[in-house]
Amino acid sequence: MAEAQWGMRVPPELVPKCPRCGRPMAMNLRADSSFVEDGGWRRAAGRYGEFLRKWKDKGILLLELGVGYNTPGIIKYPFWQMAAQNPEAAYVCVNYGEASCPQEIEGQSICIGGDIGEVLELL
After folding, report:
1. Which residues pair with residue 47 across a beta bridge?
2. Which string of DSSP letters, residue by residue, matches 8-20?
């Protein structure tokens, strides 16, 4: 492994650059006022909302891969709430070091503490 990759660091030459200004690109995260909710984002959010309405009271797998506690209100907490409100739902969490669920949904949950790649290889 290259020395620059120790400590989960990405070598600077692998960071994508903006095609207009050449500056390093950043992920679109809800971390500050720069988060973009454009037309494509709104259409995708609408499709997701429709999917959730369709499966609200039916069997559904709420599969959470690598979601930590940085922004739990986006995926983790809503999944827990959906599982608690739907006895037909199954909540599955795969996370290295942070695989857990509330006691209220333990009976319909599977929490796997491990590397996602290794877990998927075993499947």
Report:
1. none
2. GPPPGGGS-B-TT
